[in-house]
Amino acid sequence: MKGATKLNEQDFIDEIKKYKGLMFHISYGMLYNIQDCEDAVQESILKAWQSINKLNSIDSFKPWLIRILINTCNDILRKNKFRNYQQLDENIPAVNVQNNELHDAIKSINPKLSIPIILFYMEGFTLNEISMTLKIPEGTVKSRLSRAKKKLEKILSSEEEYYEFEYR
Amino acid sequence: MNLNTDNLLTAFPQMPKSFENKIDYSLSNLNRNRNINIKRKFVVVFASMVLIIFSIIGVSEGLKLGLLDFLFNKNEAPENVVELLQSDLAYAKINDVELTASECLYDGATIKFVININTKINEMLTDVDVNDYDSSFNKELRDNNIILQGGLDWFSINDTDYSMTNLSTQEIIADNNKNGSAIAYFEIYTNDTNINIPEDSFSLGIPVAQKGKTDTMKMILPIKVINNSQIKELKADDVYLEYGKISNVYARLSPLKTYLGIKMEFYSCAENEDCQDTINAWSEFALVDKEGKILGGKGDVVSSGDNVDDKGTRRIMLEYQYEPLETYPDELYIAPVEYNGIELESNMDREIKLIGG
Predict the structure, then answer these.
(1) Which residue did the predictor score with more confidence, B83 or B273?
(2) Inter-chain CB proximity A122 and B132 less than 8 Å
């Protein structure tokens, strides 16, 4: 481990607790099902703890954790996509949001585009932090943000809403 | 209207208490499960000619990190897992890239194996290098026609090809002991009804490199079936209900995993509340001891099916995988489980006793 600050169990627990909200927004922004979000976060925490020795530095904890969570959500999406049996709709609890139009618009775009939106506009990640988290070049982050904004604007304009996006 | 934190928050629900509870529950159970448990599903159907070009030779040069290091904390691999370990499986050199299948574990249902990838890059790789498509490492692999790093879409057993099965996984990490090297860990679930798995030794083929436009080079790993006292098969008597039956209940215990399955058949279910309750209850189940204590953590769905035939009979089949048990209690049961908001709990009103093993 290079220049590592090794995390003990309590450090790990403290770090995870810092990112509860972030983990919820990321998992919900990919899965849109609370039960799946709970499964994803549980599995991600377990994976993170089991591979904590691979973490190079405590400074990398946040992007590392979020990357694990995103990969886990992707696994769940794949699993749900190909799962044979149908989940009963009544088993999926309804969620309450204030802005259904924006909720549905974000839900309708590919997570590859919506995740940068959530990280950048909602969670205050910098372009560099998103690049580190998603392991894609900054230029790709910018282009995904741009594509996501255009898509959202298009969807929302058809809802007679107008959203203005700006880079911070 | 600006898109900012406040506006985006209005598009998301409040974090539910159950989500926070799940985090707290996970944090309080960090050391319960040891195995890496990454679910990934490959369903890409392949259509390419296959060339088998590799031979088996003994190799072990330079490998520091093995399969057990990946699966367990250092020196904590249980003895019965070590008994299943097979080494020095295969080696191949494709242009500038060396591939070494150094170790595997096989319990009759899952093959876990590790392939060391050694390139000519003269610097230590990082995990960013191995995961970044544009890194010099991945470019080197592509330049040498290596396809292993992209994930396995298929595999072969004794020359019969199969699409990758559910819950098969892959992870590549940098090898911090050798310049230009990475280690790929794979897990293939072979206990699928579509797979003809031999009872004795067999050859596992995995696609590792592209040859021309349509041909694929396979690496052949000789897999032995090792007898292990901890591998057990348990079954249960069919349970007859007024409206159907629960049958084909089985548990397969091994040092690598616990596998459970049930089949339910219902003759007239659509308006029968008891029947619906039974289906809902058994949508998730686990191995439990006689007190109802859940063994093996939370399960992953291996396969499932739900169909109704012309006569209206509904058949539901479910198979789950769980973490292996460290010790086997005298009496084992399969019981429905449900998350009660804090933790999984078993329903011992519906338990089914397992026999045999």
Answers:
(1) B83
(2) no
In chain B, the percentage of residues whose pLDDT exceeds 70 is 88
Neighbours of B297 (CB within 10 A): 18
Quickly state the pLDDT bin for B285 (edges 50, 70, 90).
very high
DSSP structure string for B85-109: EEEEEEEEEETTEEEEEEEEEE-SS
- For B172, the token pair is 């590549």
The phi-psi region of residue A134 (left if phi > 0; otherwise alpha if psi is between -120 and 50; otherwise beta) is alpha
How many Å apart are CA B52 and CA B217, to the nearest integer? 6
CB contact under 8 A, A135 and B131: yes
Tell me how far apart the alpha carbons of residues B185 and B37 are, in angstroms, rounded to a whole number: 12
**Residue in A108, A124, A132, A106 with CA at minimum distance from that of residue A167:** A124
A–B CB contacts, 8 A cutoff, strictly below:
144
SS3 assignment, position B116: strand
Task: Tell me if chain B has a CB within 8 Å of the CB of A90.
Answer: no
Q: How much is the pLDDT for B206?
A: 94
Q: Could you tell me if B351 and B345 are in contact, meaning their C-beta atoms sit under 8 angstroms apart?
A: no
Q: Which of residues 21-80 of A touch B (CB under 8 A)?
A: 21, 23-25, 28-29, 34, 37-39, 41-43, 45-47, 49-51, 54, 56, 71-72, 75-76, 78-79
DSSP state of B146: B
3-state DSSP assignment of residue B201: coil
Is the CB of A75 less than 8 angstroms away from the CB of B15?
no
Closest-CA distance, B56 to chain A, in angstroms, reads: 31
Minimum Cα–Cα distance from B307: chain A residue: A85
User: What sign has the CA pseudo-torsion B282, B286, B288, B292?
Assistant: negative
CA atoms of A81 and B107, how far apart (whole Å): 29
DSSP A79-130: HHHH--SPPPGGGS-----S-HHHHHHHHHS-HHHHHHHIIIIIS---HHHH
Question: Which residues in A lie closer than 8 A to residue B12 (C-beta atoms)?
Answer: 25, 28-29, 97, 103, 122
Q: Do B8 and A121 touch (CB under 8 A)?
A: yes
**pLDDT mean over A121-133:** 89
| pTM score | 0.58
Residue A1 has pLDDT above 80, yes or no: no
What ipTM describes this predicted complex?
A: 0.86
Q: Burial, A30: exposed, middle or buried (Cβ in 10 Å; 0-12, 13-18, 19+)?
A: buried
Look up residue B336 and give its two tokens: 């429905």
Smallest Cβ–Cβ distance between A83 and the set B23, B30, B301 belongs to B301
